[in-house]
Amino acid sequence: MHDLGIGLIGTGFMGRAHALAFNNAKAVFDLPLNLKLAALADADPQRARQCAQSWGFEASHSEWQQLIDDPKVNLIAITTPNHLHFPMAMAALAAGKAVYCEKPLAVSLAQAEQMRPAARTAGVVTRVGYNYQHNPMIQLARDMIRRGELGQIISFQGEFSEDFMADPASPWSWRCEAAHAGGALADLGSHLLAMARHLVGDVEAVCADSQTVHTQRPVSTGASEQRVIAVDDHVHALLRFSNGAQGTVSSSWLKHGYKNHLSFEISGTLGTLAFDQERLNELRLCRVGHCGFQRLLAGPELPGYAAFSPAAGHQLGYNELKTLEVQELVMAFAGQGGSGTDFEQAWAVERLAAAIRLAARERRWVTLTEL
C-alpha cells in the first residue's frame, strides 16, 4: 500500500472530529492506502504540539502554509473558521494537493467560483464536509427514491434548526460576521441545501425571506458593550426543483429545544419518507394504502453500518458518519469512490444559497441561471 500523508489545519471541535475520523478509518476499514497522520497546524504553537501528540500526528506547525509546503503531506484537511477556507484551499490546490474542506465551501459565491476551476485545473481529489449525507439511512432513502419506490417526487420539506444562539445574551463570535461566516443559512442551512440536492436533484428557482432577530450581542460573555449583528438568524425559502417537485426549507439557530434538527419529509405519488438527524438511525416510511408510518431501523445490511456494529438498533453517531466520509474520501483518492461532495457540487450549494439571499433581499423569485 502507498502512504497517504494527512495534514490537518485547525484544532477546534471539527479538527478533533477529523482527527478521530482518520484514526477510526484506519482501524475500521480495509483501505487501499495507508493513512499517515503527517502534520497538524494551529496558530497557537503550544496547542499545535499538544494536539499533534494527543491525536497521533507526527509533526506540528504554527503556520498553515508550512503544513501545505510539507512534502510528507498529500491531503489537506481544513477545519478552520469559514473565512479561511478560501485562502487555505487555494494554496493547497496551487501546491497540487488534495483538499478536504469543512462546509460551507466559502463565505461568498465569488470565492466559490474561483475555487471551482482551481480544483479542476489542479486535477486533485476535493471533498467538502457534508458528512450527514454519508449516513447509511440517507443512502437508503436515496436508493428508494431512485428505484421509484415513492413514485414521482412532488415535494421536499426540510428544516435544520438548533438553539445555540437562541439566548440574546450569547456573545458575538466569528459566526456573527458576514465576512467570516454568513449566518444560520451558511452555518446550518448549507447542510440542508446539500441534502435537498443530494436526494431530490437540482433546484431551478427560489423565493425566500430572512430575518436578524437579535440585532446586537455582547462583545464577550457578560459584557455590557454590544456589537451590531447583520447576519441572518433564520431563513425560510420556497424551492422549485428542475424535475418539477416543489419544496420548502427553513434554517434557524434560535429555535429552543433543538440541538441538531436536520429533518426532511419527501413526498411522492406512492409514499412519503421522513427523517430527523436527532434520530439518525431511523427513517419513517408511509406507502400508498397504509394508514400511518412504519419505522425503518438502521442495521448491518446497510453499506457502512456493519463496519461499526453487527446488530441492528445499536446506533451509529456523528463520529461514525465522519469516519464514513473519510472512507469515501480515501477511496476517491485511490480512484475507487465518487459519492462525496466535491468542489463542483459544493459550488452548486453555494450558488443555491446565494440565490436564496438574493431572493430574500429583493423579495422576488430568483432563477439559478441569474447567478
Q: Would you kindly provide a written description of the structure presented here, covering whatever features stand out?
A:
There is one protein chain. This protein has 371 residues and is of the alpha/beta class. It folds into two domains: 2-131, Rossmann fold (3-Layer(aba) Sandwich); 133-315 and 341-370, 2-Layer Sandwich (Dihydrodipicolinate Reductase, domain 2). Helix content is 33%, strand content 26%. The chain has nine helices and 17 strands. It has helices spanning 13-28, 45-55, 64-69, 85-94, 109-122, 136-146, 183-199, 318-333, 343-362, and strands at residues 2-9, 33-41, 59-61, 75-78, 98-101, 126-128, 153-161, 203-211, 216-218, 226-228, 234-241, 246-252, 261-268, 271-276, 282-287, 294-297, 366-367. The strands form three sheets. A nine-stranded mixed sheet has the order 16-15-14-13-7-12-11-8-17. Helix 4 runs parallel beside helix 5, helix 5 (109-122) runs antiparallel to helix 9 (343-362) and helix 7 (183-199) crosses helix 9 (343-362). It is globular and about 60 Å long. The termini are far apart. The mean pLDDT is 97.
Question: CATH superfamily assignment of the largest domain?
Answer: Dihydrodipicolinate Reductase, domain 2
**Strand residue content:** 25-35%
CATH topological fold name of the largest domain: Dihydrodipicolinate Reductase, domain 2
Mean pLDDT: 97
TL;DR of this structure?
The chain is α/β, with parallel strands linked by helices and 371 residues long. It has nine helices and 17 strands.
